[in-house]
Amino acid sequence: MRIVAVVNNKGGVGKTTITANLGAGLAARGMKVLMIDLDPQASLTKSFFTVDESQLFLSKLQTIGAWFRAPDKGRAQVLADLVFSPPRCNALIGKQGGWLELVPSDPLIINSESLIPGAVDNTGNVRAAKFVGLHRRLAEDLADPAFSKYDVVLIDCAPAFSLTTKMATVAADMLLMPARPDFLSTEAIQVMGQRLLELTRDYNKHRQAAPDGVPEMRMPRVAVLFTMVQWHNGGPIDVQAQFINEVTALGVPVFGTLLRDRSSAYAASGRFGVPTMLANGVAPEIRTNLNDCVDELLKMFERL
Ligand SMILES: Nc1ncnc2c1ncn2[C@@H]1O[C@H](COP(=O)(O)OP(=O)(O)OP(=O)(O)O)[C@@H](O)[C@H]1O
Ligand SMILES: [Mg+2]
After folding, report:
1. Other CB atoms closer than 10 Å to residue 275's CB: what's the count?
2. What's the confidence (pLDDT) of residue 63?
3. Does 58 score more than 80 pLDDT?
4. Can you tell me which atom of ligand 1 is nearest the CA of 270?
5. What is the pLDDT of residue 119?
6. Smallest Cα–Cα separation from 6: which of 205, 224, 199?
7. CATH topology for 2-303?
8. How many Å lie between the centroid of ligand 2 and the Cα of residue 41?
């Protein structure tokens, strides 16, 4: 099983769009994919339901909040019981044998620490003795046999380096970092690098007080995927090419595929409850662009 956390502190860079479309693309290749929505905005969850379906199903579903509130014993099964098959998607995915499932989110997890029994002290800070256990929560539960049927887990994170994003980081084999090719987004990539170093250092410091056998945390592998790239004369417009080159020059691994800026294809996709990859009437070039990302991700998996 490969676990990919889709992260970037910066908001609106395409994390949710990429999670949904890579999920659909991997499932269409025959893979069994689980998406976990760890963002209190619940955009990933909402984008798999039409407005009518939201009223019919979504309002009645148990969400990831139940997992945060669960006691340690039997917790992995609580997470497994939240898994839901989005309506219509699997019928569209095709006959390669893959499928796509989802753990839904809700706004309650905005302050997830406070939901977890005994996680914080009375000043609201994470207890030092709980630090490693808390950060390993998702990693441990995804290692449970209840999840062994999945080939890939994609975790859509909030635009913040919150406890939920840190849990996803600790659980992940790689971090996929969508970024727009502009100044603020490329600056955010460097900030994320700093945050990852700090998390790795803090985790390993607290690990000394944790029970034996807790593995050391290594700096996670990262791959940047540029999104919303404006295309002109066979390549990104000059100002965007400059930022892409700057990030590449920093030595950060970057997807060769650049996701094109196409509001016509992406803006309305959530409304129909299926990702662009599976929607009717999508231009073939958009699907090819997304499939190129899937190809590259699969090659990255081979090198992990
Ligand atoms: N390649 C693209 N071309 C055009 N529009 C896009 C593209 N990718 C995403 N969008 C649009 O950009 C907006 C933000 O995308 P998305 O919600 O995926 O970002 P996000 O990083 O998950 O945001 P947040 O940080 O709030 O979770 C959405 O309206 C989406 O439809
Ligand atoms: Mg999002």
Report:
1. 29
2. 93
3. no
4. 31
5. 83
6. 224
7. Rossmann fold (3.40.50)
8. 7
> Using one digit for the tens of pLDDT, what is the confidence trace for 161-179?
999 999 999 999 999 999 9
Report whether residue 94 contacts ligand 1, using a CB cutoff of 6 Å.
Answer: no
Ligand 2 centroid – CA 4 distance (Å): 15
Element (H, E) at 106: none
d(CA 185, CA 164): 21
- What distance in angstroms lies between residue 161's CA and the mean position of ligand 2's atoms? 13
20 Cα nearest atom in ligand 1: 18
Q: Would the pLDDT of 225 be above 80?
A: yes
Query: Scanning the structure block, which residue is given the tokens 């095709």?
Result: 94
Q: Which residues surround ligand 2, an ion (CB under 5 A)?
A: 15-16, 43
For the Cβ of 37 lying below 6 angstroms from any atom of ligand 1, the answer is no
Residue 129 zone, left/alpha/beta (φ > 0; ψ -120 to 50; rest): alpha
Helix (H, G, I), strand (E, B) or coil at 4: strand
Per-residue pLDDT band at 221 (split at 50, 70, 90): very high
Tokens of 49: 């339901």
Check pocket membership of 266 for ligand 1, CB cut-off 6 A.
yes
Q: What is the pLDDT of residues 93-133, one digit of tens each?
A: 988 889 999 999 988 888 887 788 888 888 878 888 889 99
Q: The sheet that has 221-226: what strands, in order across it?
A: 99-103, 32-38, 152-157, 2-6, 174-179, 221-226
